Amino acid sequence: MPYYIVSTKKQMNINKFYEALDAELEEIIADASNQYVLQNKKQAEQKKGYALLIWFLKFYGQKPLNQQYITDGPEDYACDIIFSNNDPGRDEIFYVVQSKWSTAKNMDKEIEKEEFNAALTDFNTLLRGVPLSEKNEKFQEQYKKLIAHLEKNGKAKFGFFALRNYNPQINSAIEAFNKTNYPNISL
Predict the structure, then answer these.
(1) Are 69 and 142 in contact (CB under 8 A)?
(2) How many angstroms separate the CA atoms of 116 and 113, rounded?
(3) Which end of the chain is more exposed for a tag (fewer CB within 10 A), N or C?
(4) Nearest-angstrom CA–CA distance, 23 and 1
(5) Residues 6 or more apart from 99 whose CB is under 8 A from it?
């Protein structure tokens, strides 16, 4: 079952969540330690999208030096973050995340089925070990670690992170991805 914040059982006001998240992203953008990487992001929405990746890693991944895990960039193959963590059983699990930043006017819309399916296509391309461009060094470094981990029968979790409402039309795609990649890889 996919994870999502807004549900019919326990509805969080998405506007309040967006405002709180937006304020945290502004703090990340203003943080001097992020200025070097953000200087190449010209538009405010690009900066917000990158800040969202940092926020995700800090909040969920709890990784120090989080920028090394962000693979967003030229020819990143629809993969914005690759990092590993240990589960409670102490097994190493790799996480591969694609994120989509939404502006305030779009946040109450559902995840677009076509966009989600495109991300799944790219996830499957990654899993096939297709030779990739050398242009994105961070991606290459993290991707090689992921593939080496998977070759040793390691576990990986793929995620699509978007500030949008859940779209039930993507259920069959999630089920197919999980069935095809069972037991060590899940979405």
Answers:
(1) yes
(2) 5
(3) N
(4) 29
(5) 49, 52, 53, 56, 80, 81, 160, 161, 162
